[in-house]
Each structure stands twice: as C-alpha cells, then as structure tokens.
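Quick one - first record:
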Amino acid sequence: QVQLVESGGGLAQAGDSLRLSCAASGRAFSIYGMGWFRQAPGKEREFVATIGSSGVSLVYADSVKGRFTISRDNTKNTVYLQMNSLKPEDTAVYYCASKRAGVHYSSTDPTDFDSWGQGTQVTVSS
C-alpha cells in the first residue's frame, strides 16, 4: 500500500478557490490511478475526481465538473485538486485515494481504491 497525506484544506467563501495536495510515499506512485472523494456531515463518502497514471485520463463527478481540476506530478509523487468557484455544498472532508493495480482509469467505485489519506477539511461559507 501507499501512504497518503493531504493538505491545503481550510475556510473559504463562496466563489473562492482552494488547491488540495496529496503527497504519496511507499510504492511506485506513477503507475497507479489516483482519486479524490469527499464526505459531508451526515452523508456518505462520494466520488469527486479521478486521474489515470499518466495524468491524461480524467473523470469528474457532475457536481464539480467545470469547477474542479485534478492533476498529478509524478516527479513529486503528488496529486492535486484545484477547486474553483467554491459553493457551500462543497463543504466536506476531502480524501485522497490510490487505486488498486489494474483497475480501469474510469472507475469511481471507492472499493477500487486500496489506500486512503486521513482527509482534509474544506469549509465554504456563503
């Protein structure tokens, strides 16, 4: 498994931007797909975005499409989530996750991710 550490969360106002980072260690980062999920209070964890190992293949949840951008830097073993035009409904704990080997890049099923970070809180006020 891989160790994942998120950073970059915090307080924002509606319309603001934040960038989350997730630093990976422990296995060959560049060959695994990565993803971001989020969990709001009282709700189930939901998929946000995923990126293939090369950084070319991207999938987004409809709720963030056009506002959030996932990217990765394989030289730094880091995946990012740029969040623009934030809304109060984006408030959640955001988790970085690493896909199991061999899983298709487009999978958004959390059971296809075998390593998770501890999460970083994002709070958006109106």
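second record:
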Amino acid sequence: QVQLVESGGGLVQAGGSLRLSCAASGRTFSSYAMAWFRQAPGKEREFVAAINWSGDSTYYADSVKGRFTISRDDAKNTVSLQMNSLKPEDTAVYYCATGAFRSNSGLSHKRMDLYAYWGQGTQVTVSS
C-alpha cells in the first residue's frame, strides 16, 4: 500500500526557515513526479512546488519562487521542501503528493488531479 508521510512542520517566526520532508513507501517512486501543495484556513488547496520524474526540472508557485527549494532523494524515496524567508501568508497545512506522469510541462505539475497519492499533511505556522 502506497503511503506518504510528511514531517518537519511547526511554528516559526517570520523570516525564519523550516525544512519539510516526505517519506514515501509502498513502491519505488524514482520515476514519479513529486510535489508539495498547501491549504490555508478557508482557502482552496494550492500548488507550491514540484520536481519532475527525473529530478532535473523543478517548478514553483510565484509566491514562493526564490524562497523555497524542492529536492528529491530517490535512494531514500524522499522529497524535501526547504523553506526560507518565511512569511505569515505561508501559514498552511502542507501536503506531499506523487503521481506517475512524465512531463516537462510546468502546467502539468501544477494539476492536483495528476497526483494519485497524497500525504496527511503537516502544519506550518509563521508568526509575525
């Protein structure tokens, strides 16, 4: 059974950093796209960052570009999100997701319907 487990969330002051990790189990995800989405209270879930199946392309929402970095370690079946210069508007539940599609399109990687597997989420709270 496929399982994604996020960790690393917490409370941080504005300007601080956090590193989220997502451990995948149940199969090898080396040929799967992996991504992070987030959902703030009262808002829809939104795309944050993605890395393509081969690991040589990354995609970011404009709101986090230059502050967040996504990476993957296929040997460990993990994907990470390094978040720097955090802002109160980054407060949300962050979800890890993975999907068996191969694309070099940024638009594809932002589509939630292409990700078949999701984690339970980890809370990130940024205080002002």
